[in-house]
Design a protein that fits this description.
alpha+beta, Pnp Oxidase, Chain A, 220 residues
Length: 220
């Protein structure tokens, strides 16, 4: 599947503010690759669930992981249909009226079904990819999973069947009659940034901070 391929279907078509929508995989993948937490929705016996999970994209799939004892993950691994969403809040949009306040954001909704990765070698590679996707450079600088840890981990691959992007950017859109209202209007930018690394209390003496964690680079 090429990055430029459109992924729209009736279930993923954006109907409210369609001018904010996009359906190219290149757009969707950029939003996925910039995120850390996805909300995964599915139903078990008619009961809907939405759970937050760390994730990473690998080619045309999204990787999720958890404990093998998780009933919800076992349900997903059975091939149940699911929906995954990621949102970046980029700013508060302050208008002159309550009605026109808004937010600048980028979001993606993915539809697909999950399958379990069982092969130990492939599972180890995928888990290393998860680590590196969240903290680039970390996989090579930490111990790989051992056979017991691999056996205790459920690793799921959600194939991206179709998806849609929705985003907003720019200043407030006030009604012309409100432009003379005496209040400040504009955008308050928001961003998720890493703080100062806090060493573990039992860190080996003299262990330096690795380069990939310096200068605020501890996030993709």
């Amino acid at each position: 599947m090429t990055d430029s391929a459109e992924t729209a279907s009736d279930r993923s078509r954006v109907r409210r503010h369609p001018e904010r929508a996009g359906y190219e995989r290149k757009q969707a993948y950029a939003i996925l690759d910039a995120g850390q937490i996805a909300h995964v929705g599915f139903a078990v016996d008619g009961q809907p669930f939405v759970i937050p999970m760390l994730y990473a994209r690998l080619d045309d799939s999204v990787l999720l992981h958890g404990n093998v004892g998780s009933r919800l993950l076992r349900h997903l691994a059975s091939g149940a249909a699911c929906c995954l969403t990621v949102t970046h809040l980029d700013g508060w949009v302050l208008a002159r009226s309550h009605f026109n306040h808004s937010a600048n954001y980028r979001s993606v909704v993915v539809f697909g079904s999950a399958c379990s990765i069982e092969d130990p070698e492939r599972k180890a590679i995928a888990l290393a990819h998860l680590v590196d996707a969240l903290i680039p450079g970390r996989a090579a600088d930490s111990r790989p999973s051992d056979p017991q840890e691999l056996a205790a981990t459920s690793l799921l691959e959600i194939r991206i069947d179709d998806c849609s992007v929705k985003s907003r950017s720019g200043p407030p859109k006030d009604h012309p009659d409100d432009l003379d209202w005496p209040t400040w209007a504009g955008v308050i930018p928001l961003a998720l940034t890493p703080g100062t690394p806090e060493p573990a209390l039992d860190l080996l003496a003299g262990q330096p901070l690795p380069d990939y964690l310096r200068s605020g680079r501890a996030m993709r």
